[in-house]
Design brief:
48 residues; mainly alpha; elongated
């Protein structure tokens, strides 16, 4: 658990220099974009 927390903190410092304020919304946006990409891939596979 502590290892995961440390990695998250390092990730935040590297990719979110603005700090923790924007992290929750950015995570949600990134997750939503990933879901959309996966859905598009699934759809295109079905069309082929």
């Amino acid at each position: 658990f502590f290892i995961v927390g440390g990695l998250l903190i390092i990730f935040v410092i590297l990719f979110y220099p603005n700090g923790l304020v924007y992290l929750p919304t950015d995570l949600k946006k990134g997750y939503y974009k990933l879901k959309m990409k996966l859905n598009k891939k699934k759809v295109s596979k079905h069309e082929n």
